[in-house]
Design goal:
Elements lengths: L12 E2 L3 E3 L2 E7 L19 E5 L18 E8 L9 E6 L2 E2 L1 E6 L2 E7 L5 E4 L10 E8 L28 E2 L3 E6 L3 E10 L4 E9 L7 E9 L2 E10 L3 E7 L20 E9 L2 E10 L4 E4 L2 E4 L2 E2 L2 E6 L13 H13 L4 E4 L6 H10 L2 E5 L8 H18 L5 E5 L14 H17 L19 E4 L5 H7 L3 H5 L20 E7 L1 E2 L11 E2 L3 H16 L4 E7 L22 H9 L2
Parallel strand pairs: 24-25, 24-32, 25-26, 26-27, 28-29, 29-32, 30-31
Antiparallel strand pairs: 1-20, 2-13, 3-4, 3-5, 5-11, 6-10, 6-13, 7-12, 8-9, 8-11, 14-15, 15-18, 16-17, 16-19, 19-20, 21-22, 22-23
């Protein structure tokens, strides 16, 4: 049987010695929550079902396809490391497990993690048996009705409805293992500076380095040609080096990264300890700058109009999990083919393979957190912890040009009048800026903004003349209340930030097997194209709006306002859509 999702799961930081643990696992529902009491974690008991990892049990590709509430689930797999792992430390990685996870290896607790969209890992070497096979057991708990849990578009009722979709419980991204030496390069962070033609590299190490003769060799190439090579003496757990890049031509933009020219530099790392090579890894970076200059959004020091599409990242057979790497790439290619230069990943911290293809093919991305529905102290703790992990995971991707911790006051429903919720949104803004000062942050996308770098508005008005009038002046835009919501709260007001309409359109057309729903409807192809033109052109030609995000890329279950059907078929000829998106 073909291994599901076999592609390397961490494409920005690659090692050769690894193995995917995707495929068939034993599986069980634990609706009575007896597994811990009955010691299922010891791995001695076979579970009664089979599931295809990394697909959640609610999806068809999992082999189960049950969509009812099962808040506690268990997984078990017997695994022996391949011969290539011999003499190495073994790291076990989980791309994402929704929502709380505990992992045991041969009965020993190896890892625990809270957060449904972010990765975690553990060194399981000392728990492995030399005789094998080894029992890996995972317990996942995802409280389906907990409105204080960051969940994105996963509905807290049993059946999908409106803008809410099928839940995802348990493992939904790749599980894999890699072999490393006792001392190894754990991660790197890139800080490109196009103004000085330099890349700053921060390298982080695990294992003993102090008091040893350790060095990291860095080799940078561009399109196969050597650009720079340096060796850093490793004296501590983090080392930093700024490296000049030769031949960078600003005038031709020939080596900067942009959607039009997605140029990437390749990097090879070689770590030696006491004269022996102990680790090799490879990665890439893009020389790209995002800034706001005199109230204008700029990409690589030039004003840039963002034409984004809202992308929910759902699939008809995998739900939150793309069925294949080819399906991920197709979404990026279709987005670009329709004339968009970016996507706002909506209420989902997307699979790293998606960000990889955006880096490679050239597509801007707004990184957005999966929000909760209501506010509490428990929610605030969960949200801030997981969001920090999301920003850390995706920091290096040149495609990401903005961060959106909150959307439409989800998780802070009383932000208009509740000072605590206003402070939470403000804290999320400042927390994000402290983690990444290089990208703009939107405190609460759509309305009820506190401090924000971009002034973003959600507006599903469908009449062309109303949109044209509303966005003909700055005052008209920032004082509008399209959803009968104030655009700013908590004493904050518009301060000259770039204005963008980051949700609009939502034209429903062509029903599928799902009951149809959308913001406005079209009767035939000509009516659909006319309605699309009527909402796009006023924003593109306003002179006030500096970017937009059209709702949405695909249909999702009962929501049929996609430019594509749920199975990625264009509803009208794709070149017709592109003609409208390309209009000025």
């Amino acid at each position: 049987m073909t291994l599901p999702r076999p592609d390397y799961p961490r494409p920005q930081f690659v090692r050769d010695v690894w193995e995917s643990l995707n495929g068939e696992w034993e599986f069980a529902f634990d609706d009575e929550n007896v597994g811990l009491r009955e010691k299922w974690h010891r791995g001695e008991r076979a579970l009664d079902r089979r599931i295809q990892v990394p697909f959640a049990f609610e999806s068809r590709l999992s082999g189960i396809g049950e969509t009812g509430f099962h808040d506690v689930v268990w997984y078990r797999k017997l695994w022996s490391p391949p011969a290539s792992f011999a003499g190495k430390r073994v790291l076990l990685h989980f791309g994402a497990v929704d929502y709380e996870a505990r992992v045991w290896v041969n009965g020993e607790l190896a890892a625990s993690h809270i957060g449904g969209h972010t990765p975690f890992s553990a060194d399981i070497t000392d728990a492995l048996s030399p005789d094998g096979p080894n029992a890996i057991v995972v317990r996942a708990e995802d409280r389906g009705k907990d409105v204080f849990q960051p969940r994105g578009k996963q509905f807290w009722e049993e059946k999908s409805r409106g803008i809410w979709y099928t839940r995802t419980t348990g493992i939904w991204q790749t599980v894999w293992a890699e072999a490393v030496s006792p001392t190894y390069l754990a991660k790197v962070k890139y800080e490109p500076d196009i103004d000085r033609n330099e890349i700053r590299i921060r390298a982080f190490f695990e294992g003993p380095v102090e008091g040893r003769d350790a060095a990291l060799r860095i080799r940078i190439t561009f399109q196969g040609e050597p650009v720079a090579e340096e060796t850093i003496r490793v004296l501590r757990a983090e080392e930093r080096r700024t490296i000049g890049l030769h031949g960078l031509n600003d005038h031709g933009m020939d080596r900067f990264w942009s959607p039009e020219r997605p140029n990437l530099y390749d990097v090879e790392y070689e770590l030696t300890v006491d004269g022996a090579v102990v680790d090799r890894a490879a990665g890439y970076f893009g020389m790209r700058k995002v800034s706001i200059e005199n109230g204008r959004f700029a990409l690589n020091n030039r004003p840039y109009f963002m034409k984004l599409v809202l992308d929910q990242g759902y699939f008809p057979d995998g739900n939150l999990t793309p069925p294949s790497d080819e399906a991920i790439r197709l979404d990026v290619e279709l987005t670009k083919a329709m004339g968009f230069n970016g996507a706002r990943k909506h209420q989902k911290v997307e699979d790293p393979r998606y960000l990889y293809w955006c880096d490679k093919l050239g597509l801007l991305v707004w990184g957005e957190m999966a929000n909760a529905c209501d506010f509490s102290e428990a929610y605030s703790q969960r949200m801030t912890a997981e969001w920090q992990e999301a920003v850390e995971r995706d920091y290096n991707h040149p495609c990401i040009v903005a961060w959106v911790p909150l959307n439409e006051s989800w998780g802070v429903p009383n932000i208009q009048i509740d000072a605590r919720q206003q402070q939470h949104a403000l804290a999320m803004y400042h927390l994000t800026k402290s983690l990444d000062p290089t990208r703009p942050v939107v405190s609460n996308d759509g309305w009820e903004l506190v401090k924000t770098d971009l002034f973003t508005i959600h507006d599903y008005e469908w009449r062309e003349e109303v949109l044209a009038e509303r966005y003909s002046t700055v005052e008209g835009a920032v004082t509008s209340m399209p959803a009968n919501r104030r655009l700013s709260v908590g004493g904050f007001a518009y301060e000259g930030q770039p204005i963008l309409v980051t949700e609009f359109g939502g034209i429903a057309y062509k029903k599928s097997e799902w009951e149809g729903w959308g913001y406005s409807g079209a009767s035939d192809d000509d009516d659909y194209l006319a309605r699309l033109r009527a909402v796009v052109l006023p924003l593109r030609r306003s002179g006030v709006v500096q970017g937009y995000c059209y709702t949405q890329l695909t249909d999702v279950e009962q929501e049929i306002n996609g430019l594509l059907t749920y199975d990625r078929v264009p509803k009208v000829p794709i070149e017709k859509i592109k003609e409208i998106i390309d209009m000025r």
